[in-house]
């Protein structure tokens, strides 16, 4: 399992855009993503006991389902909703 300062920054909720990352932090995040993809069994409980809220500005079934599946595969639970402006435009 990869542990790096960049990952701690993300884990503590300090990441709001990709511009918040330095080049080294971005590479550490990409390394972690590669590790998760190639060794998913190590990360099956990474989100155990965690609840993740997903808020979507635009309705996108494919994006929502992808995020929900990823959270489930990492052992977490999720709640998703759309922003009020997205609901009004439907």
Q: What spatial form do the alpha-carbon principal axes imply?
A: globular
Number of strand elements: 2
Number of helices: 4
Helix-strand sequence: HHEHEH
Secondary structure layout:
Blueprint: H1 5-11, H2 23-38, E1 51-56, H3 61-73, E2 77-82, H4 84-88
Parallel strand pairs: 1-2
Account of the 3D structure:
With 90 residues, the protein is α+β, with helices and mostly antiparallel strands. The protein is 46% helix and 13% strand. The protein is globular and about 35 Å long. The protein has 4 helices and 2 strands. The longest helix is centred in the middle third of the chain and has 16 residues. Strand 1, helix 3 and strand 2 form a beta-alpha-beta unit. The chain has a two-stranded parallel ribbon.
Concise description?
The protein has helices at 5-11, 23-38, 61-73, 84-88; strands at 51-56, 77-82. With 90 residues, it is α+β, with helices and mostly antiparallel strands.
